[in-house]
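Attaching the record inline, Q. Sequence:
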Amino acid sequence: MATKTINKDEQKDAKDAAFDLLDALTKSGGLPLDHASLHVVVGATHNFDHSLIETLVQDNINPIGKLERSMLIMGLTVHQQHPAELVPPSQQSRLKAELP
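Structure, as predicted:
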């Protein structure tokens, strides 16, 4: 898997190309997109100072909690909703106790 960082000019060009394609597919808005949906994919990685086992045993840190916190923050940002709306009621008390 390759990763590429693009600068602002390249990002603008890619965005313009995407809108040009959408414009062409809809014949400049002449064709409605009644059954279309937009999907957003957000990628994230986590780096720990130690290996997974060292984090668990030596640091006594649950790495799953850190991942859950990051995923919740991303979910709140993307969906613009209160945490109670994104977390099942059965998990809310556990997360409140574990996350700052």
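The mean pLDDT is 87. The two ends are 34 Å apart (CA to CA).

More tomorrow.
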